[in-house]
Design goal:
Layout (H helix, E strand, L loop, with lengths): L12 H6 L13 H21 L10 E3 L8 E5 L16 H11 L4 E15 L5 E14 H18 L6 E5 L4 H12 L4 E4 L5 H10 L2 E7 L3 H6 L9 E5 L15 E4 H10 L12 E7 L7 E6 H12 L10 E4 L6 H13 L2 E4 L19 H5 L3 E4 L1 H17 L2 H18 L8 H17 L7 E4 L6 H11 L3 E5 L9 E2 L17 E6 L15 E8 L10 H7 E3 L5 E11 L5 E6 L3 E3 L5 E3 H8 L5 E8 L6 E7 L1 H11 L6 H6 L1 H17 L10 E4 L19 H7 L1 H7 L2
Parallel strand pairs: 3-13, 5-6, 5-7, 6-10, 7-8, 8-9, 12-13, 12-14, 14-15, 15-16, 26-27
Antiparallel strand pairs: 1-2, 2-18, 3-4, 10-11, 16-17, 18-19, 19-21, 20-21, 21-22, 23-24, 25-26
The chain binds 2-acetamido-2-deoxy-beta-D-glucopyranose (3 copies).
Length: 729
């Protein structure tokens, strides 16, 4: 095993589950004739085209400066809308009214799709570990009309069950159709829904439910046992409603003080005893979303109905030709604002949502039984959301397979890639027309089928996407990526790239529902008078800015500020710069900038991004102590790479942890870090003076990175306190 791309080893769960590294992008059958044809076309077509077209593309203006209140800065609005938009259409001022109106309009159309479980088996791997494998059937659909009826029934059933409508309900579950129905059912009775990540730990779960005084908990049947164990701590809960999947026995050992009912029973109860709706108001709190923050206990963000419809209204203006013919693949957690906002967008335009999971997404995903279809193959979606870490792995997986296929396939892929890249970047010398068809046929169609073959647009958010990966996906999947920038606190809405923007590394102009302002941060060295572009802390204002943190006025006052015109601004802590065409680029994070002993500022994120390009690095955290004039780093090495090096140079070791402690290994990795640091033009104080190699990978389960695979610095620092201390001795 050599030359494994970084991080493709099996401890990174999210990506491994997707199974992207297991397919073959280029078939065996393309022999030398394919190559010859490719070379000929590659030579002739550009010559023909270049003589037909001349000239340079003009930069399109996408955002313009706008006069706003509040702290002085450089504010920009979306070019196409002079006023902030608040609703997708008149009358859709709350999620409840939006849902009702959209369901009536599209009543006969497919809405929520679920795959039927046909069978389930366990296979034992060579190392004795057991894996669950699923055989799933086709998608079964319910229409918009049926969904509306079920949500109404659930709403009535909730009241009949004895839920006090002045108290809150919580959903603690992975995403599926009933999650969405439960949410809409609660909205119809003006019940605020608390959302909690299904992967959240026990303490965080107890804290969130207790803090918001939740009286009805909606969960999966497999969670009932877990709840039984902490029942004594959940003092506010009165009712538990579980999604019935016929899979787990529901005898959970819960003591009799809770009313426990299945989702179907509640729906039936409501259907037989309807209750008139109680429609919420625009400023009512729709959702209290607990975010798995990088520090401490999770914080609950209060999202109003007005926020949710505003984000949906903004996003539908930027996805091209979005309508009820689209099919959306839903597999990320609905407890994440990014997914919740995306599904609200799909509801708004009347398209179909097919549910799946990260573990069953592709034909080679870890939970899919061999020979059966993954979710994307069964659904053939036209739209998909992804976080950058997933797209990075897609790229690594494709490149790895291309490399393994030998030099002929590799050169073929490279020529095809270059030709398509030129086309994507808008040059007339790239592959268009006939030549495009040719390359699609021999190289890219095969790659595309991995995602179902029909993807026409991808939404990406959660963290910055590297330019290289963005291009790679553009070329190989043949679809534009709409990169969103937003936070839970801005209800996912802030900026979004436009489909015809071929640049990379930027997050587009403000959405039509938001203004974005840069505010100078003098201490950090970023000001709005910087040349060539204004830079500063990113502050978001407008209709998507949420109502603050639940039960935390101090934090709310610190980060949310209402200006003299009544507009609320959220201070993101991210540092950005505005390009002349009105597009935002995220360049840094306030928290991650440390001032060293001699007064230089070091941006940890920037240094880490540079060091990640070393082939030895699976993950890295740079640490800077303000009392020293240098930084240090904790490095998780790529097992295969370090082991290969050890074999090549003849370093003996018993196990990987021992190898990580070998001074020769540390020196080798450090040498590689210095090289990539030099290539990235880092300053001397930015190159880690000492490093420590850590054998265990950082996964969301270990609590060291977030679900989007962002570093949780405080947790990493706490866990490796001793190791860090030693690096400063
Ligand atoms: C629940 O919250 C109350 C305050 O509202 C607090 O006194 C109590 O300790 C909390 N219980 C748990 C289990 O966290
Ligand atoms: C559960 O099983 C019952 C009968 O065994 C069936 O009627 C029902 O449709 C099943 N529900 C689900 C969600 O599969
Ligand atoms: C909805 O609930 C909120 C409190 O959660 C309350 O202030 C508001 O009056 C309710 N609206 C209606 C129409 O009952």
């Amino acid at each position: 095993m050599m030359g494994e791309p970084r991080g493709s080893s099996d401890a990174i769960p999210l990506l491994e589950r997707l199974g992207f590294d297991q397919y073959f992008p280029v078939g065996k059958s393309h022999g030398p004739y394919g190559t010859l044809g490719a070379v000929l076309l590659a030579l002739f077509i550009p010559v023909l085209l270049s003589s037909m077209f001349m000239g340079k593309k003009k930069t399109k203006q996408r955002g313009v400066p706008v006069q706003v209140g509040g702290e002085p800065g450089y504010a920009v609005r979306n070019m196409r809308f002079s006023e902030l938009i608040e609703v997708p259409w008149k009358g859709a001022t709350t999620m409840a009214s939006l849902f009702e109106q959209s369901c009536r309009k599209h009543s006969q159309q497919k809405f929520l799709g679920t795959r039927k479980l046909i069978s389930k088996e366990f296979v034992t791997a060579s190392d004795g570990r057991k894996f669950e494998k699923l055989h799933l059937g086709d998608y079964n659909w319910i229409t918009y009309g049926e969904t509306f009826d079920r949500a109404c029934n659930f709403a009535s059933g909730l009241v009949r069950l004895g839920h006090n409508v002045d108290s809150r309900a919580a959903i603690f579950s992975d995403s599926h159709a009933e999650w969405f129905i439960a949410l809409q059912g609660c909205f119809r009775q003006n019940v605020t829904v608390v959302t909690i990540y299904a992967s959240l730990g026990e303490d965080a779960l107890v804290h969130s439910l207790n803090e918001t005084q939740v009286s009805t908990l909606i969960c999966e049947s497999k969670q009932l046992k877990k709840l039984g164990a902490i029942q004594s701590k959940l003092t506010t809960i009165q009712n538990v409603i579980y999604f019935d999947d016929n899979e787990t026995d529901t005898d959970s050992g819960l003591s009799g003080i809770w009313t426990v009912k299945s989702f179907t029973e509640v729906e039936r109860l409501g259907k037989e005893n309807p209750v008139p709706p109680s429609i919420p108001s625009k400023n009512g709190i729709a959702v209290i979303m607990y975010t798995s923050g990088s520090t401490g206990l999770p914080k609950g963000v209060m999202i109003t109905h007005g926020n949710m419809v505003a984000t949906a209204a903004g996003v539908i203006t930027v996805i091209p030709k979005l309508d009820s013919n689209d099919i959306y693949m839903a597999y990320l957690p609905l407890a994440h604002i990014f997914e919740l906002a995306a599904e609200s967008v799909m509801l708004t335009v009347g398209c179909a949502i097919g549910y799946g999971s990260a573990l069953t997404l592709t034909d080679t995903s870890s939970k899919i039984k061999k020979g059966t279809q993954g979710d994307v193959s069964a659904l053939k979606p036209s739209l998909l959301t992804a976080v950058p870490a997933i797209l990075d792995r897609v790229r690594d997986g494709v490149l790895k397979k291309v490399k393994e296929k030998g030099s002929l396939v590799k050169s073929l892929f490279n020529i095809g890639y270059k030709r398509r890249l030129a086309a994507v970047e808008g040059s007339f010398f790239g592959a268009w027309g006939l030549e495009k068809m040719f390359w699609d046929c021999i190289v890219f169609n095969k790659i595309r089928t991995v995602l179902g073959g029909n993807i026409r647009f991808m939404l990406c958010g959660g963290a910055p996407l590297s330019g290289e990966t963005q291009r790679f996906i553009n070329v190989c999947i043949g679809a534009p990526i709409g990169q969103g920038y937003g936070l839970t606190e801005t209800c996912a809405g802030a900026a979004f790239t436009e489909w015809d923007d071929t640049s990379v590394g930027r997050v587009g102009p403000p959405l039509p529902c938001s203004y974005i302002k840069l505010v100078s941060w003098e201490q950090g060295g970023y000001t709005v008078s910087d040349k060539p572009m204004p830079r500063g802390e990113i502050v978001v204002g407008g209709s998507s800015v949420t109502a603050g943190y639940f039960n935390n006025d101090a934090k709310t006052k610190e980060l949310y500020k209402v200006d003299e015109r009544g507009m609320c601004w959220f201070y993101t802590g991210d540092i950005g710069q505005f390009h002349p065409d009105g597009c935002l680029e995220i360049i840094d994070r306030k928290k991650d900038i440390v001032k060293l002993q001699h007064g230089e500022y070091i941006s940890l994120g920037k240094v880490e991004a540079a060091l990640m390009s070393s082939g030895y690095v699976d993950n890295v955290m740079v640490h800077a102590d303000p009392f020293y004039n240098y930084c240090v780093a904790l490095v998780v090495p790529v097992h295969q790479m370090l082991e290969k090096w050890a074999r090549d140079v003849g370093v003996k070791y018993n196990d990987f942890p021992e190898l990580c402690n070998k001074p020769e290994a540390v020196a080798e990795v450090q040498k590689s870090l210095s090289e990539v640091a030099r290539a990235a033009k880092l300053d001397k104080f930015e190159v880690p003076a000492k490093i420590r190699l850590l054998p265990e990978q950082w996964t969301p389960e270990s609590g060291l990175v977030t679900a989007a695979l962002k570093l949780k610095r405080e947790q990493i620092k706490a866990k490796f306190k001793d190791e860090l201390q030693k690096l400063y001795e």
